[in-house]
Amino acid sequence: MTTTTRPGAGPDAAEVRARSGAAGMRLGHRLFVAREVGIGLALVLLVGVTTAVNPRFLSGQGRQDLMLGATILVVLAVGQAIVIITRNVDLSVGSILGLAAFATGKLFLAMPDAPIVLAVLVGTGLGVLCGVVNGALIAVARVPALVVTLGTLYVFRGIDYSWAAGQQINAADMPSGFKSMGTADLLGIPLLALFAVAVLLVAGFYLKSYRSGRELYAIGSDPAAARLHGIPVGWRVFGALVVSGGLAGLAGVLYAARYGTLDAAAGTGIELNVVAAVVVGGVAIFGGSGSVYGAALGAVLLSTIGSALPVLKVNPFWQQAVVGALILAAIGLDRALAARVANRLRGRKARGA
């Protein structure tokens, strides 16, 4: 029995589209790596200027504060980058962070001698559960990610407020061993920052070295072509949302360790900073390109801007304007790079023809 295929829709067409997409991803990768280098240079310039104005900016305590200030945002940005690469977005990470942070505090109130590992597992597991809810609604029910995560942002925050019922957990109620995580360091690097570095390295290795990680880029570049190529788009998007939720839960535990004092408002509004960090870091908002390393650089840059502006005697209200300008510039650069990639691919196809 023979099978007929429609012109342009058969296996040959799918293979051609997949190869074209792969070539575009390789070219786009080179361009966005160059962009990440530019972000790193901008960060170095900002730190250099601020240090010239106030040499104490890079003192021992100043370096500690800079690293701690970026830690939570980096962890959240890594998870968000994985989601945005698939052409989706997770706006609920701030609410998941707050829920996991308060759950960590309640755990230690109920079990003062609970091991720290248990707190990490509980917070991360709660985040994974929230990610499963997001992933099921987005990947299985096929509801747009923006709509789903905007809704769960309020749902998770409402659960947090209902659970807290106005209660505040003070640092004095937390075990000293857990609180020391927020101040301890290893060879001058804060322990919490090492958590962020570990998350970054694992995520970067996975996206580069595993087929399922590389398939996330294919999904973001062209979901239809990815399906024709046999990629389980729904399951990959589901997994990305679960990872984002789990990392938001881990960030909630780190938040509790750093600040100690917890209430239902923890993490409110941070989701916008997370998306901004990812976009500024070179992850295309339309999916398919960028890296978690760039997202981490974007997070460090934004947190450093927040610390540098007061030192430079710039009105803190300008911080939001600066971040907004960076987002607009990043999106404009995304479009310019995408057009450049498309033009080069068209030129290659013309030469091949």
Descriptive key words:
single chain; 353 residues; mainly alpha; ABC transporter involved in vitamin B12 uptake, BtuC; two-stranded antiparallel ribbon; 2 strands; 75% helix; globular; disordered N terminus; transmembrane
Compute the separation of the termini in Å.
Answer: 34 Å
Q: For the largest beta sheet, what order do the strands appear in spatially?
A: 1-2
Mean pLDDT: 83
CATH class: Mainly Alpha
CATH topology: ABC transporter involved in vitamin B12 uptake, BtuC
- Weakly predicted, low-confidence segments: 1-11
Tell me what the CATH architecture is: Orthogonal Bundle
Number of helices: 13
Helical coverage, percent range: over 70%
Question: What would the principal axes of the Cα set say about the shape?
Answer: globular
Task: Characterize the largest beta sheet: strand count, sense, and whether it forms a barrel.
Answer: 2 strands, antiparallel
Transmembrane segments: 37-54, 66-85, 91-109, 116-141, 186-207, 237-258, 264-285, 292-311, 317-338
Function: Part of the ABC transporter complex LsrABCD involved in autoinducer 2 (AI-2) import. Probably responsible for the translocation of the substrate across the membrane.
Main location: membrane
Subunit structure: The complex is composed of two ATP-binding proteins (LsrA), two transmembrane proteins (LsrC and LsrD) and a solute-binding protein (LsrB).
